[in-house]
Amino acid sequence: MDEELYDRGLEKARQGDLTGAIACFTQALQVNPWLADAYYHRGLAYYDLGELQKAAFDYTEAIKHNLRQANYYCARALVRVGLKYLPGAEEDIEKAISIDPKSAQAYYLKGIILRKQGSNTNAILSWKQAAQLYLEQKDADNCRRCLENIEQLQSPPLIVPNPSIPNQPQVAPAKLEIIYQQMWQQAQKGDAKTAIESLNWAIAMDKKDALAYCYRGSIRALIGQDREGLADLNQSLQLDSKNLLAYQNRGQLKAKIGDYNGALADLEQVFQMVTPNAELMLVRANIYQQMGNYLEAIEDYTESLKLAPKQPEVYYQRAIAYTRIEEIKQAVADYQQAATLYSEQNNWDEYQNTLERLKQVQSATPVGIPKAQANSNPLWERLILLVGGQVEIAERLVEQVKLYYPGMAEDWYLEKVLYDIEQGNFQGDG
Fold first, then answer.
1. CA dist., res. 156 & res. 169, Å (int)
2. Is residue 100, in this structure, part of any structural domain at all?
3. pTM over 0.70, yes/no
4. Nearest Cα to 56, choosing from 89, 21, 80?
5. 343 and 311 share a domain?
């Protein structure tokens, strides 16, 4: 009996007969006072009629009978916002998120609450999270609503840096670039599959979305799908010939697969459109180093450091270039400076790695992989076997990957090189 009355109430609510729906839910609760969903839906009807106090009472009753429904807390939070009881609304939203961390609605409401509290920066972060969740759920309308809210809080309009060119001149992006950047970060953390699926859907919705192709291509390159990544980046540039990120990432991908002239040509396009900055100089220097053009690499590393002196990875890479041309004194100085900067940044893994390199150079030993290190790590043993026992080749392959993906764990680099070799992605020894 109570279920029949409840279903009748739902049907009346769908038809817009809110008063009739309330009557049915009330009858259902008279039969079964523990029916949490009846309280919840009666609260929704009261809310739509503008009777906020009654809605709040019903949501509270629903929560009493079922403490694990995130949507109950979201509903009461919304009412509490309307009643200007922001601390209670915030408490409800945090509870909803703890129950369901994937609740896009909860993050959206959290953004509203934070904005009303004057915390615009945190409101933007919440709406970014909500937008990504809505996109994953293929809810384009609510995703756009989040992005529009974000834009409204920006003064001047939102400026988003290119994820691969942190210091580039800033330009206003398309709305969805905010979300695509989050997908890029998601892929970097290891969840490339979900990011690519979301970008597949975005492209299905708009086959002329140059940014979606750009980010999907970049993520595919990240996980070793070089041909697919190159195709996506080509498509992105066909749709938008001024896409700086697409040119830069395509250039790096071309260098990775051995097309150095093509890589430099793509970077030249970027240099023609923007004033060169530290990160761009670093990218070109890394390509020169891969080509074996160490003097050109050193020149670009030096220019990068003039523009941004606190870059330990640039000193580290320039030290390698100096070592290749047997300028040991300069290499030692650069390794020392890199170690100092890494220690100041509390990057202890890279600090220790740099000190090890420094010891090798100072003792005039080859910059190859120490035998003890190979023997102690099965991944090194496997890699050295794959390259026919040639330690220098193994090291060169690892260094090549480090140029593209700085800051990862040593074993990650080894696994990446092993995967690329086994998939036939390396065209040579660099």
1. 15
2. yes
3. no
4. 80
5. yes
